[in-house]
């Protein structure tokens, strides 16, 4: 929550802790059998990190599901719990201890449903009413005051405080709430919908969603800027786009190649956009124009050797002889980094 640490889960189980300002490795935490890690959520005070994941080992045994980590000492606060196969959606409610997530059944034919767990008591929670019907996805508001459940062609929004629900027809995949849960982004393929959830007087119809075609291919994830004035989307086309809420026009666009981008978040100060690419790479894009690769390139002559140093820093290595032969066939190979 303070923007100093980015947590990224992996398919194998380890969780990477990276510096928020430059994605430098800080630590790696691992719980045996925890992969794939399907979700992560810091507690509001930032002192604990909750992760959910796991599945079956080759011999059929169930593996870890929910793990609570102490961020300071980077160790689990206890053994894994849950006895469920957590899905890819979820988060902590406003009380800071109730984890709501989607979980798969114990076989391929069983539906995905919503579940709640108390991370302190490490037991199922029945404090809040959850849908008993199958769900496709679960999204929790940043302040934990609302939960959106994708139910196949529509979305049900639950207001935690009063237990009231609202159905959003046509909101196929809920993606992200604003910080105050007053607005929700949802997707239907490449089309992004912006839903205004502000209560309306009795007898009045709620406003229809605004929509735009956000990507050439499917929208895979979205996030709101902290002030709610803009939002970001990432798609299967490998792009990340920052949009103006007022005009629904693009403000910035980024790409790191053709691989899909699967996750996106703003830093708390809205100066950095974090994404995860389909190849597993974590990216930090500068939104100020004065930092990072863009600023270096803008102030560096084309023939400056520091450009090679910059390329080496980004790639983390030099060209191999095979790559050199492919891209520079008329030049003799030499070490680049």
Task: Describe the model.
The protein contains three helices and 26 strands. The protein has helices spanning 292-298, 306-315, 321-327, and strands at 5-9, 15-19, 25-29, 37-42, 48-53, 66-70, 75-76, 85-92, 98-104, 113-118, 123-124, 137-140, 146-150, 154-159, 165-169, 173-177, 183-188, 191-196, 210-213, 219-224, 230-235, 239-244, 250-255, 261-266, 272-277, 282-286. Strands 4-5-6-7 form a four-stranded antiparallel sheet, with no helix packed on it. A four-stranded antiparallel sheet has the order 8-9-10-11, with no helix packed on it. The longest helix is centred in the last third of the chain and has 10 residues, at 306-315. The model has no long low-confidence stretch (mean pLDDT 90).
């Amino acid at each position: 929550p303070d923007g100093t640490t980015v947590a990224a889960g992996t398919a194998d189980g380890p969780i990477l802790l990276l510096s928020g300002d430059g994605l430098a490795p800080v630590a790696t935490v691992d719980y045996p059998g925890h992969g794939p890690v399907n979700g992560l959520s810091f507690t509001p005070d930032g002192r604990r990190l909750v992760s959910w994941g796991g599945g079956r080992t080759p011999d059929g045994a169930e593996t870890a599901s929910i793990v609570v980590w102490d961020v300071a000492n980077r160790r689990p606060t206890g053994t894994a719990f849950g006895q469920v196969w957590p899905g890819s959606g979820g988060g902590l409610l406003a009380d800071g201890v109730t984890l709501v997530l989607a979980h798969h059944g114990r076989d391929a034919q069983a539906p995905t449903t919503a579940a709640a767990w108390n991370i302190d008591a490490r037991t199922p929670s029945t404090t809040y009413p959850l849908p008993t019907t199958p769900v496709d996805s679960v999204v929790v508001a940043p302040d934990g005051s609302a939960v959106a459940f994708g139910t196949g062609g529509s979305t049900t929004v639950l207001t935690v405080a009063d237990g009231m629900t609202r159905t959003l027809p046509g909101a196929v995949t809920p993606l992200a709430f604003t910080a105050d849960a007053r607005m929700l982004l949802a997707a239907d393929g490449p089309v992004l919908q912006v839903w205004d959830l502000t209560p309306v007087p009795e007898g009045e119809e709620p406003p229809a969603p605004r929509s735009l075609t956000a990507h050439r291919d499917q929208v895979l994830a979205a996030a709101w800027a902290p002030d709610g004035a803009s939002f970001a989307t990432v798609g299967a086309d490998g792009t990340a786009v920052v949009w103006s809420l007022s005009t629904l026009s693009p403000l910035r666009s980024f790409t790191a190649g053709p691989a899909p981008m699967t996750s996106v978040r703003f830093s708390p100060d809205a100066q950095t956009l974090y994404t995860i690419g389909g190849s597993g790479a974590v990216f930090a894009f500068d939104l100020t124009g004065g930092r990072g690769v863009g600023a270096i390139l803008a102030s560096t002559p084309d023939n400056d050797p520091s450009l090679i140093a910059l390329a080496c820093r980004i790639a983390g290595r030099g060209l191999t002889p095979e790559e050199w032969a492919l891209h520079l066939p008329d030049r003799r190979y030499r070490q680049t980094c």
